[in-house]
Amino acid sequence: MGAIREVEVPETLDHFQDSRYSPYHFFTTAEWARFRADTPLTLTEDDLKRLRSIDDPIDLDEVRRIYLSLSRLLSAHVESSQMLFNQRNEFLSLSGAVKTPFVIGIAGSVAVGKSTTARILKELLARWPSSPKVDLVTTDGFLYSNAVLKTRGLMARKGFPESYNTGELLRFLSDIKAGLPNVKAPRYSHAVYDVLPDQFTIVDRPDILIFEGVNVLQSRSLPAGGKIIPIVSDFFDFSIYIDADEHLIHKWYVDRFMRLRETAFRDPQAYFNRFSVISDEEALTVAEGLWHNTNLKNLRQNILPTRPRADLILQKGENHLIEQVALRKL
Q1: CA-to-CA distance for 220 and 232, rounded, in angstroms?
Q2: Which of 52, 271, 292, 293 is disulfide-compatible with 193, CB 3.0–4.6 A?
């Protein structure tokens, strides 16, 4: 027997672009755009104005380059899921079973553009020729209320995994995957920065559910004794991670905060209204403090480590537009 050859194993996901090790295929935007094939562009510029978040420069060219190919890919996954469902029912001799929603998880840092991506995908998927019913829910509503967070000393860790009512979140996804009608998702207001009491979004057996949040790909410690304890991503059929270099997300977060001082923060009822009346220098200090003390810590400790768990990674560049697509190999 010959000597065993030692192989240098890459240490980070970035090194996994070496095709010998990577679980992903990597594509430039030009390469990815070709997979659009004959997928029609069904959005208009007015649609994008309604869907894009503040300071997000996405345009119709970006939709053509990235989202039409992604829509086509997701269409293939949904069709394959339906085919597998039918084959399994035949294998198990089941009758009368109804296919449950295809769930797409979208993860990534604050200020990276998850909400825009989720809204655009919702619109594109709902405009397929088959006219599927597509719903969008964010994890914000599953945060504990500010009153609970203050009691537990967690206000400074809002958005960290422990700030969510994980039990309620898992019950929601379990009910969705069970095909139950009129499942309630609690609502959240960014204006008042809190969960809205007794207000819900009703999700009634959609064909596709998009579930968006910073920590939706979060794993957990292995349970003792092999107990079956689900995590959020167990309910996903496909997952997407929106990625960008740390220094870019930092800049986008601060720029967005400063822009909100001139818009949403001016509402007298807004939680952050007090930041609209201080000086630019003071506001910048606040924004930098929120980034470094909360959002950067959450990104490094809880969000970025989930990136390798995604089926698709959209890598953004300095102009906030996507520069590379990584698709997990089958």
Answers
A1: 10
A2: 271
What's the CA gap between 250 and 262, in Å, rounded?
Answer: 19
CA dihedral sign, ordered 232, 234, 237, 239: positive
In residues, how long is the chain? Answer: 330
Class of domain 19-215+229-328: alpha beta
Q: Determine the Cα–Cα distance for residues 313 and 100; give it in Å rounded to an integer.
A: 25
What residues does each domain of the chain span?
Answer: 19-215+229-328
Pairing of strands 208-212, 24-28: unpaired
Maximum pairwise Cα distance, the chain: 77
* Beta strand pairing call for 322-328 and 312-316: antiparallel
Angle between helices 246-260 and 280-290 (to 10 degrees): 140
Q: What are phi and psi of 102, to 5 degrees?
A: -85, 120
- Distance in angstroms (rounded) separating the CA atoms of residues 302 and 298: 5
- Neighbour count for residue 122 (Cβ, 10 Å): 19
Token pair 């207000």 is at which residue?
199
* Separation of alpha carbons 149 and 130, rounded Å: 43
Q: Would you write out the chain's pLDDT as a tens digit for each of its 330 residues?
A: 444 334 343 444 454 556 678 999 999 999 999 999 999 999 999 999 999 988 788 999 999 999 999 999 999 999 999 999 999 999 999 888 888 999 999 999 999 999 999 999 999 999 999 999 999 999 999 999 999 999 999 999 999 999 999 999 999 999 999 999 999 999 999 999 999 999 999 999 999 999 999 999 998 877 788 888 899 999 999 999 999 999 999 999 999 999 999 999 999 999 999 999 999 999 999 999 999 999 999 999 999 999 999 999 999 999 999 999 999 999
